[in-house]
Write a structure and sequence with these properties.
mainly alpha; two-stranded antiparallel ribbon; 13 helices; globular
């Protein structure tokens, strides 16, 4: 019967995201500056721009799958608790709220970044210091909630080396991991379908990992989010008509990092976020290369922009999904250790 609840959550996530998207997309289009919208007209040559610059597409599309996921998880968890009433007041409910709350906290930080872009003088969003403060606050609240709920992992399992106990270093390490994951996912947001596709594969991996670890009822959250992301890709796959924005990208980062932490397995988060780690590492190398050599490592600006130049936008989507699949296989293997 719990499998039925997962199916309900997934189908509802898809249907509700589709419905919310049909309502929100026209509204989000009105927020695109007229001069940027003109750049998207057919036949008009697209100017060269940095990956973080506005593309003339509606952003903040992440609100569609965030709202759809919230409603679908609510209905799905009610079905789960009807099947197993003992779960309603048990620890699993708290773990579910921790995973969902991590996504919402980082999504709120991303929403502040997106709203700042609406100002004519802040088209690139919040200054990096202000954004990091918001992300740091979201990470600290998440880690504090994990500690208070007794769910915070104090170590991690690495293939080939076994279990590593981190002790007091665990909490700050998880906070840094969440912030780094959020920033890495935000960098991938402008690529058509990259973040949503990678997160979709990661959610499927999370469903499998939670089943292996004995948290099968909690798979209602990744199931709902997977269904919602499948609907969002109808707008976000190339050629994109809607972008997730910082709110969507950072929400997904919070979910990919927060859900494994809520079940005490930070190692699974490290594996599932493989495509985002590649993006973040490439951005770090870009900055170091520019500082040391005086020129950029990727002339196009960042890793996914370089991939777009080499293989096209669709290639970026497939590469991110392939990396996510590799991370999922590693996460499932780690869950079995």
């Amino acid at each position: 019967m719990i499998r039925f609840a997962l199916i309900v959550a997934s189908v509802l996530g898809f249907a509700l995201t589709t419905a919310v998207g049909n309502l929100l997309v026209p509204l989000l289009r009105t927020l695109v500056p007229p001069e940027k919208e003109a750049e998207r007209r057919p036949g008009r040559q697209q100017p060269e721009r940095q990956p973080s610059e506005p593309r003339g597409l509606p952003t903040m599309g992440g609100l569609c799958f965030i709202i759809g996921t919230l409603a679908a998880v609510g209905v799905g968890w009610v079905v789960v608790c009807l099947v197993q009433p003992e779960l309603l007041g048990g620890g699993l409910t708290g773990r579910l709220m921790l995973g969902l709350g991590a996504g919402f906290l980082f999504g709120a930080a991303g929403l502040a970044d997106d709203l700042a872009r609406l100002r004519p003088r802040q088209v690139l969003g919040l200054r990096i210091g202000a954004r990091l403060v918001l992300e740091g606050a979201a990470a600290l609240i998440t880690v504090a909630a994990l500690f208070l709920n007794g769910s915070m992992p104090t170590g991690l399992t690495l293939p080939g080396t076994g279990y590593w106990e981190l002790g007091a270093a665990a909490a700050p390490l998880w906070a840094v991991m969440l912030v780094a994951l959020s920033e890495s996912a935000r960098l991938s947001g402008p690529s058509d379908g990259a973040v949503a596709g990678a997160a979709f594969v990661a959610m499927l991996g999370l469903m499998g990992a939670e089943t292996i670890l004995g948290f099968f009822p909690l798979a209602v959250l990744p199931a709902a989010l997977a269904g919602a992301l499948m609907a969002f890709l109808l707008w976000n796959f190339y050629p994109a008509r809607l972008l997730p924005g910082s709110v969507g990208s950072m929400f997904l980062a919070g979910a990919v990092g927060g859900i494994p932490l809520s079940i005490g397995r930070a190692d699974i988060a490290l594996a599932l976020a493989l495509p985002f780690w590649v993006e973040g590492l490439a951005a770090l190398l870009q900055g170091l290369w520019r500082r040391v050599r005086g020129r950029p490592l990727f002339r196009q600006g960042n890793f996914d922009a370089w991939l777009r130049k080499k293989g096209g936008p669709v290639a970026v989507f497939y590469i991110f999904c392939a990396l996510a699949l590799a991370g999922t296989l590693a996460a499932l293997r780690t869950a079995q250790l």
